[in-house]
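Weekly structure sync, notes
Attendees: PL, DS, HV (note-taker this week)

Item 1: Tetratricopeptide repeat protein
DS walked through the input record. Source organism listed as Blautia stercoris. Sequence as pasted into the shared doc:
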Amino acid sequence: MKCMICNTQLNSSSYCPGCGCNVTVQKQIVALSNLYYNRGLEKAQIRDLSGAITCLQRSLRMYKYNIHARNLLGLVYFETGEVVAALSEWVISKNMQPENNIAADYINRLQKNANRLDTINMSIKKYNQCLEYCKRGSIDMAEMQLRKVLADNPKLIKGYHLLALIYIRNGKYEKARKQLKSAAKIDKTNTTTLRFLREVEQQTGKITNLEPRFKAREKVKQEKEGRVIYRSGNDVVIQPMEYRERTVTNTLINLIIGLLVGASALWFLVVPAQNQRINQKANQKVVEYSDKVATQAAELTRLQEEIDNSSESVNTATDQISQAKETTTSYENLLKAWQAYNDENYETAANALEGVNSDLLSVEAKSMYDAIMGDIGSSVKQKYQSTAMDAYESGDYATAIENYTKALDIGEPDFTSMFYLAQAYQKSGDTDNAKTWYQKIIDTFPGTQNASDAQDYLDALTGGSSSSGSSQSSQTQSQADTSDNSDDTNYDEEDNSEEDDSNYDNNDEEDTSNDNNDEDYSNSDEEDNSYSDYSEEDSEE
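Item 1 (cont.): predicted structure, written out as tokens:
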């Protein structure tokens, strides 16, 4: 015991050795608190739990630091099904005395059995729900729910009381008596239990016996003659002396029987307990390993996320560096093209402009690019067309597609580049893009022979006349080739009108080679499958 003023440990003296205050009253209060604690302990031992709760509450009211009284009060609450109140008392006790306190052991035991704790908490919630059912008049629902509550938490005295009250209201007095007897086994002197039993007895006219049905017989005395006199209920039974023949054989038989009984008890009681202990340890190990594995998995997930974020940052930086390099290259090529353009070296300027990505240029640089391209764009475009035609003739359709696309990006779109771009897509197997460019020819040159020819190719690709392509006459193919050649010649003449005489001669040679290629396409179905795709309907047209 410590002084309540200076917290000094007290001795047998009536005065505090630290501050000198008179501690007689304090010691009397502590003694009175211990007295109530002892009375509560005695009542708890005979299952007078209500009286024990009253005594222990008085003990704590006298001296709240009585750890033993608080721990015992928690045990009594737990025995009556009040788990929340029990945990509250044990937590307060542990806070008052953190070390050498059995309340910590009680809390740990309850927390280790998480399933049991969850079941008890759920039963309390269901009990509160039953109260709401009763208030709303849903007695049947409350009765069904209370049965489940008592199955999960058989020590909840309030549950027995409420179920017995429902039975009394419905006139089921024997069922109510049964529930009240179950409550009396937990707490013999509970006033609510006794009051409800008195009501049941008044309604049925039958007294309820709370004593065990088969009470142990109480021995009164044993006389010298060997007779045994004992009391069974209200009767006194005199048992005569038994005659037993004592021999060595009987002794050995009794000894063997005792050994067998002991071995059986050992096998059926000790061994299962040992196995259960081993299983519990194994389960604890499994739980610990599972927790470790889960922790490591979470750590691995976190590290993987960090790696992914780092990889994403690296990829973003790499893309930015690549874009910066491409932008720098575009500006360097633009400067080279501008210098060559000022030096009137248009071929070098055209070559430099090929390495310029106009989408990456600023507004001023884009204006410079457009100015140069406006003057030498036709030369660049012709160069792209020449490279694309060479690739097309050699069967390198990917290169042809790339250069025809670049040529179409310069100036106004022309039929030759669009037509051969569609042809390159078709021969490379990309029919979707081929259809797209045939449709662009139709939209760009509406009402012309070029649009009509593109429509024929588009119909052949969409299946309108593909089934009869093999029966098309060579005359129709020659007419289509002649039409394409005339269109190409007309387009070349338009381009030649913008250039000098020397370029005109070169374009004529290119047109002548294109005409020869078209004638080759008209004579061979294997070289140009698109021409052989004409249908009989096209021939009739």
